[in-house]
Amino acid sequence: MLTECLGVPHVSTGEMLREGVRTGKGITPKTAAKMHAGILVKDAVVDTMVEERLSHPDAANGFVLDGYPRTLAQAEHLNGWLNQRGIHEVVIHLAVDYNVIIARLTGRRECPRCGTPYNVVLRPPKVDELCDLDGEKLVRRDDDREDVIRARLDAYDQQTRPVLDYLRNNGGRVIEVDASNDSPEAVFQKIGRAMEN
Question: Could you tell me whether strands 90-95 and 64-66 are parallel, antiparallel, or unpaired per DSSP bridges?
Fold first, then answer.
């Protein structure tokens, strides 16, 4: 919703990494195995992917980064990259209770043919486990298992939470939005009001 409103691309490191695993381009089997275990990919790999993606013409007037930066080293790298280009960031931190995160992620499903996302609790398909659009059997991502999610939350506490402090302390505008219980539309409205302020 945010990228549509702003007319800029959505740049998701998770999507780029999963695409690299699917195609075998730029992701080694060792890196793929780490990803399936919930371990963060090396900073240099992710930094290079992001820089390459942001060099595309569609990102010239802005972009929404999703899942990046996740470590202090990535934040420092991004900060330098943005400063060199005179780009001023706005950081939107969606605060969500961990139990809510686990419930949401373990319920995620996706159509392997068209990519339509579902959630067995929040946005179920009309027919259990089948895509509404093409009838394909829905799949669960390997990294949506509870043990992997808990490992990712531990990694977040250790590596990503300090990124918010770094961004705040280095002049970044950080908008905190409670996203625990609201619909995506309501969260989007909260983001819009906070950005207007």
Answer: unpaired
Whole-angstrom Cα distance, residue 135 to residue 148? 28
Q: Is residue 134 classed as helix, strand or coil in its secondary structure?
A: coil
Distance separating alpha carbons of residues 55 and 29, to the nearest angstrom:
26
Which contiguous run of DSSP H or E holds residue 117? strand 117-119
Give the angle subtended at the CA of 111 by the CAs of 105 and 114, to the nearest 5°: 130
SS3 92: strand
Label the pairing between strands 173-178 and 10-12: unpaired
Burial label for 194, CB within 10 Å (0-12, 13-18, 19+), is middle
Instruction: Answer positive or negative: Cα dihedral of 103, 111, 53, 37.
Output: positive
This prediction has a pTM of 0.72
Joined tokens for residue 10? 């959505």
Bridge partners of 11?
65
Q: What is the pLDDT along the chain (197 residues), one digit of tens a residue?
A: 989 999 999 999 988 888 888 887 777 788 788 777 767 788 998 999 999 999 999 999 999 999 899 889 999 999 999 999 998 889 999 999 988 889 889 999 999 999 899 999 888 999 999 999 999 999 998 888 888 889 888 888 888 889 998 988 887 789 999 998 888 899 999 999 988 87
The rounded distance, in Å, linking the Cα atoms of 166 and 106 is 30
User: Rounded to whole angstroms, how far apart are CA atoms 148 and 38?
Assistant: 5
